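Assemble and predict.
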Amino acid sequence: MGRKPCCDKVGLKQGPWTADEDNKLINFILTNGQCCWRAVPKLAGLLRCGKSCRLRWTNYLRPDLKRGLLSENEEKMVIDLHAQLGNRWSKIASHLPGRTDNEIKNHWNTHIKKKLKKMGIDPVTHKPLASIENQASPPATEKTTISEPMDCQSNEINEVFNETISIQSSTITEVAKDEQEDGEDSKRIVEAHQVVDFCTDEVPLIEPHEILLPTKSYILPPLSSSCSSSPTSSNYDISTSNQSFVHEEIHQHLPNIDWCSTSFDSTNYNNFDAGLWENDDEFISNLNMLINDQYETEISVQNDTSTTVATDFNQYSRMLLNDDFWKFEQLL
DNA sequence: AATGTAGTCAACCGCGAGGTT
DNA sequence: CAACCTCGCGGTTGACTACAT
């Protein structure tokens, strides 16, 4: 990407991570848990700086990550929290379990900003654009008045604004008040939203035995599937595939998981004979096998034809580390 | 079919906070 | 208390893809 390296060390790799690198990092953290990031690349045998490893893990490889687009509720929460917290993405992310600051930031810049503008709301101030234009110099400390929109010349905009703000108003008012009082914004927001607090800097280090892994009840999701937001996912329609292996019981325990499923020919490893691991050794072994090189994977698709898919490392790592892949059952 | 443009998102950089020496 | 180190955050970049012309 044409920039000078973030660290002085020469010979460190930059750019997209390969599946092999992912594998090394995963294996290392599975074995040792998270520790001093500076030491990680050396110990894991990676030619990366610690910063890069941390970023890759926290934004992509972490087992508790959700993938895919933000839901409507999540989006509302982001708008809500942004109105109060501004561009404090990590704070915002801490209220959306499984979402990273980077992901939210990207989503904000690419989706939400536009949506708000389309609705006539300034994404920075969260006020109607029309009224902002009519203000010579909008006051900087307007957060506490968000629940009470300013005079608007356009009733239409006002309506849209009110509609949007009504979602937020009680929370924001309360939060803003609280923040002014004692600065404990996040605490109050959590109370207001009644969500589980999840702040990455408060999460304890993950020990290997605490990492959730799929068990034999589940089959590895396909290279790309309907639950993935990846642009490559359109190749498959898994809706008619065998879904019986998805345990109803687990559905009850984990109702929010958007389960992926597909049918695989498990007669050879080229066809994803994966996900049926008896123990973690087998899992690691499969993981190594899966991301060791480039495979051609034949997957049955809806119309009874077969599509041969060449999977490169990045694609594979995405699939492997897709949300559903991890969050099933704890290995004992 | 070729080219241009816009959108998306993983990854990078610089900086500041907080801890340690 | 200063210097140093490590980590995390927010802004930005650029590769890749999808869509338009």
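Confidence is low (pLDDT under 50) at residues 1-6, 136-161, 163-205, 212-332 of chain A.
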